[in-house]
Structures are given as C-alpha cells and as structure tokens.
Design a protein that fits this description.
Blueprint: H1 4-22, H2 31-38, H3 45-48, H4 54-66, H5 73-86, E1 91-92, H6 98-105, H7 109-122, H8 128-131, E2 149-150
Parallel strand pairs: 1-2
Helix pairs in contact: 2-5, 4-5, 6-7
C-alpha cells in the first residue's frame, strides 16, 4: 500500500502538468505576441495560473525584460494589454462599483452604469446569461473574459 502512494503522487503530478501544458490562450489581440515572446523562456502554464490588473502584468513584464526577454516596446505593450484583459482580476458583478466594472472589465462608463442600475432594479445576477438582459450592455464583449466574472 505504501509503495502505491509515491506512484500516485507522480501520476497526479504528470496529469496536472499535462493539463497545464495543454492550456491554450484565449483568442484576442496580442495572443500571438504572448506566445512568441513569453514561451521562449517558459511554458504557458506560467501565464494561465496567474491573474492581475495591467499594473501587475506590467511589473511582471518589466521583470521578464530585466531577465532578458526579447521583444520590442510594441510587443511588450501588446503583452500587457492582452494579459490585463484575459488574465485580469475576477470581478463580482453583483458587488462591483461602476468604476471597477469599467477598469477591470473594459466596459464603457455607460455600460457599467447600466449593470449597476439593472442589479439595483432587478436584483443580483445569477449567471452570465443574466448580463445579456441588461439594456445598453454589449454582453458579447464580455464572453471572452467570462471566466473572470463572478456572481
């Protein structure tokens, strides 16, 4: 029985690594640049396991540049913008202020205000489909970052 435990640990580690390694980045502007520049030093699992706003991603990119990451200023700007959008902080649409919805989800101020008004009038959102009912919100632009939206 004790001999099985190390084997189970090794197999679990391999499975976790395989899932992380098979992780694909969401489609969007900057994806190709992230794959080209960032994967010369590490795999995608180093990216997909992190979250942060643009300031945090800028710090990470600055650190990588200091370690020798090779790319143009335009490449690094594209990387920060991409990571800030697709790997930004989670946002609870039932509690977030309009400014947080704008800053963290990239909504316009009128879209953020519409979410706040809708939840005040109709109650909390329970699922992503509820956001599609908000007048004045283009919920399709939230679909690529849906995993970051919490209820």
């Amino acid at each position: 029985m004790n001999a099985m435990r190390p084997l189970a640990i090794v197999l679990c580690s391999i499975a976790i690594a395989a899932v992380a390694g098979a992780q694909d980045l969401p489609a969007g502007p900057g994806k190709d640049t992230v794959e080209k520049v960032c994967t010369t030093c590490h795999g995608l699992e180093a990216i997909v396991t992190m979250q942060g706003n643009k300031d945090i991603w800028q710090s990470v990119v600055d650190d990588m540049k200091g370690r020798g990451a090779d790319g143009s200023n335009e490449d690094f700007t594209a990387i920060v913008n991409y990571l800030g959008k697709y790997f930004g902080p989670n946002v609870n649409v039932n509690t977030a202020a309009a400014k947080a919805l704008t800053d963290d989800l990239g909504l316009t101020s009128s879209e953020a205000d519409a979410i706040v008004k809708y939840r005040a009038d109709k109650g909390n959102f329970k699922e992503f489909a509820d956001l599609k009912k908000v007048p004045g919100l283009d919920a399709s632009k939230l679909e690529p970052i849906q995993k970051r939206i919490k209820f």
